[in-house]
Design brief:
single chain, alpha+beta, Alpha-Beta Plaits, 2 helices, about 30% strand
Length: about 60
């Protein structure tokens, strides 16, 4: 399974960063069109648990 980030939806709430059990999510160091610093997923650390998807209020994550 893979986790995809839809950067244009991210509002930088950091819920996903705080929730990730493997610390696989971090700030990307870039801004989206709305002016928010969006998140990125380290695929090597990610275990596709879905917690980021569950806590995100803006539907930033897609798990496939």
């Amino acid at each position: 399974m893979a986790v995809t980030v839809k950067a244009e939806r991210c509002k930088g709430c950091h819920y996903c960063i705080e929730t990730c059990p493997k610390k696989a999510i971090s700030l990307a160091g870039a801004m989206n069109k709305q002016g928010y610093e969006y998140v990125q997923v380290d695929e090597e650390k990610c275990i596709s648990c879905g917690l980021c998807f569950t806590v995100c209020p803006d539907f930033v994550f897609e798990i496939s």
